[in-house]
Specification:
Elements (H helix, E strand, L loop, with lengths): L2 E5 L3 E6 L12 E7 L1 H11 L3 E5 L1 E3 L2 H13 L7 E3 L5 E7 L5 E6 L20 E6 L6 H16 L3 E5 L10 H12 L3 E2 L3 H7 L5 H9 L5 E5 L5 E5 L2 E5 L12 H14 L4 H15 L12 H11 L1
Parallel strand pairs: 1-4, 1-9, 2-7, 5-6, 9-10, 10-11, 11-12
Antiparallel strand pairs: 2-3, 7-8, 12-13, 13-14
The protein binds adenosine-5'-diphosphate (ADP).
């Protein structure tokens, strides 16, 4: 049995209550919701029945409990998560506007998350797959931890997967970008979104960007196309999935739910086509609930949506 590992920021998120709510109208926010790209992805993989483990840092506070309670309920092994008395849990405030754009206030500086740079992580026994989110690579401490775990995983014959998640505000510094490219070059599975391709390869067409990404040598590339669905490329095979018609309430976490589902299915021996079909449905379900991982799903609810469509 393969263990899927994710490493990085764990945080709570407060979401603006109605579209167009200004960030200063704090009374309109709901939360705290468990969040952080590595957490959302691993939560979904666990809900799909995969063996999972997460490494990150939390304050010894109630916001930290929001994360551990939720992840444990989904079946994630949180035994390596640090709980630090003298540090806080990361917090994000997210506000959505009617045109689909988002604004964020992050309180992530000097949080417990940073402590994982100095703490060794003992790899679980058995086959390993490390999932890396580019969103973590804007933070120098997380880079140190992820780089070290990635090389241990590769040395053990394990695999890496990477979601570039290349948002400009998180990828300002060159070290983060350089490491993202290094991770992509070592990945067996790549999960770019259309906006990642535009950010990473400005001015290139989608096909050119895909070719560029495929030259890094991954076995499977999954392109996430938001409401348009997804494209899976595995060797010479291409599988296209249209987006499910759902009501989008909160787009945060769709990409992470997609990755978690895909990786869980692949490590459980399913085909790339089947993994893509389930991941595309999981991404659609993810956007129907407010809160970053509140729309995570199990195979039963995914199969219900797939049945509706056929
Ligand atoms: P990211 O969150 O990484 O930017 P996307 O927004 O592309 O990724 O979402 C990931 C996947 O979730 C998509 O490939 C698609 O399968 C599904 N998805 C996302 N938004 C919608 C939507 N509005 N309707 C249907 N499916 C969606």
């Amino acid at each position: 049995d393969t263990t899927i590992i994710s490493v990085g920021e764990l945080l709570v998120e407060f979401v603006s209550h109605r579209k167009g709510c200004a960030l200063r109208e704090l009374a309109e926010f709901t939360g705290p919701y468990a969040s952080g790209a590595p957490a959302i992805c691993i939560d979904q993989a666990a809900r799909m029945g995969a063996r999972t483990k997460i490494f990150g840092g939390l304050g010894a506070d109630n916001f930290g409990n929001v994360l551990t309670d939720r992840l444990q309920a989904s079946g994630v092994d949180t035994s390596a998560v640090l709980r630090l008395e003298d540090k806080t849990t990361g917090v994000a405030f997210v506000s959505y506007f009617d045109d689909g754009t988002r604004t964020f206030i992050f309180h992530l500086n000097d949080t417990a998350a940073d402590a994982i740079a100095e703490t060794p992580f003992v790899l679980p026994e058995g086959a390993l797959l490390l999932h890396v989110s580019g969103a973590s690579l804007g933070n120098a401490n997380l880079r140190v931890a992820i780089e070290s775990i990635a090389s241990q995983v590769l040395a053990r014959g394990g695999k890496i997967s990477c979601d570039p998640n290349a948002r400009a505000e998180l990828m300002r510094d060159q070290a983060g970008r350089d490491m993202l490219f290094r991770m992509m070059e070592h990945s067996s599975y790549l999960f770019p979104s259309t906006s990642d391709l535009e950010f990473l390869f400005p001015g290139k067409s989608e096909e050119q960007s895909i070719d560029q990404m495929r030259s890094y040598g991954a076995d499977i590339l999954a392109l996430k196309r938001g409401s348009q669905g997804a494209l899976i490329i595995s060797g010479e095979d291409r599988f296209e999935f249209c987006g499910h018609k759902v009501q989008e309430v909160d787009p945060t976490g769709a990409g992470d739910a997609f990755c978690g589902t895909f990786l869980a299915m692949i490590t459980q021996g399913h085909s790339p086509e089947s993994a893509g079909r389930y991941a595309n449905a999981a991404g659609a379900l993810a956007v129907t609930r407010r809160g970053p991982m509140e729309g995570n799903s199990d195979s039963e609810s995914i199969e219900q949506l797939l049945k509706l469509k056929s």
